What we know:
5-stranded mixed β-sheet, UDP-n-acetylglucosamine1-carboxyvinyl-transferase, Chain, binds uridine-diphosphate-2(N-acetylglucosaminyl) butyric acid, 25 strands, alpha/beta, 14 helices, 2 domains, 4-stranded mixed β-sheet
Amino acid sequence: MADARPFHWEYTPPPVAREIFRVEGGRALRGTVPISGAKNAALKMMAAATLTGERCRLTNVPEIEDVRVMADTLRDLGVVVDHPAPNTYEIASGDVDWLFVPLEAAAKMRSSFILLGPILARFGRVIMSNPGGDRIGRRPVDLHVDAMRALGAEIDYRNGYYFAKAPGRLRGGLVEFPFVTVMGTENAMLAATLAEGHTVIRPAAREPEIDDLMVMLRAMGAEVERTAPDVIEVEGRRRLRGADHRVMPDRIEAGTFVVAAAITGGEVAVEGVECDHLGAFLDVVTAMGVSVACGRDRIEVRGAPAGSGAYRATDVTTAPYPGFATDLQPPTGVLLSQATGTSRIDETIYEDRLEWLSGLAKMGASVRVLDHHRAEIDGPAHLTGREMEIGDLRAGASLILAALAADGTSVIHGAHHVQRGYENIERKFLDLGARIERLPEESVTPA
Length: 447
Ligand code: EPU
């Protein structure tokens, strides 16, 4: 009998170069760290560039693996993607050869699904692989598909692929989400820029990356506006033009370095960041007793001496922007392990984003995972260097933070997860005085 499982799930991703981070902890970080462009803005802007046949030029694009995957995915479609200088990409989608985003792209990077809206709106059809779940949860794409249907698309799902068609042009309409979704909002907004008529999206996610994407879209000639904090309205245009845009700074990278300074008892200026984008996070770290001074485009952080127990326990509940960002929950969790008393984490966005805590516990933190969404951390804990495996991007960055604060040496496997989203992370830590190396897996002698 034929195997009843769709072939989609048979796919095994190609092997990635296995590398490790070796970190010698216990050094206070000092100096200035420049923040790169935001991953979660740049990826969407690369997708937005397919809304026009004219050339779009993006600067301050982070040099990270996810951007390379998006560039390759676009090239596979026949889009011209040039990389004339570091952090600069030029994208020209005059014509495309294939209206097909295969499983290879979707398996490498869930956010390739952001191509659904723009390609469907511009070319009238596309076949997209279902990205499936990932290590932090199921992460379905049903809301993206519903949004396209609300704009008049016909979408069938067969064998792990969405076959999407827009008979004629997409039609503006009401896109109502049952709850806030970042990429769902972006996909709907991108599609609506070329739809016929008026679109209202609500509740629209409020993440600053979406507003930066709107700035680019307006430069391309789109008529798009946030008419209320959680409403975006779009008046569709027949065509858009090319534009130049500078990607906003990465608030999640900035928050990661704030924690790095705090956890090592260091003094770090985090440069090129907008404090306003980090409000809920900075409220938590200041409530814990970290000294933080916000300037126009920098944050100065002074940590308490490592192991002093000077930080206060606190509770963290993740929420859509302007709430506490789920992507900063793991880094903040490391800091909570150094606070005196019991802290609580309530992860409301994802159902599997507390798994990384087992790595922290292995290093000596006292952690109780109560269920898929809630955990308690007792502190302050004395962290000791260990050998660990990274499960996903933000978990990986957090284990590096813990290793920087720990006594002794840590070997962290799966460095590629971190390179997906942090530009030159080891270089930035080295420049702050950390002892960290990225090495091929073979260089580790088994314990
Ligand atoms: N959801 C659905 N159906 C959908 C879409 C989302 O059920 O069709 C659920 C998700 O499973 C999740 C919740 O809705 O439980 C919210 O997900 P959302 O759609 O807002 O997330 P996303 O757009 O897929 C972006 C970032 C994530 C970040 C989240 C939340 C990008 C490329 N990714 O994901 O970033 O965690 O918003 O802020 O923008 C990261 O950078 O490490 C990362 C995971």
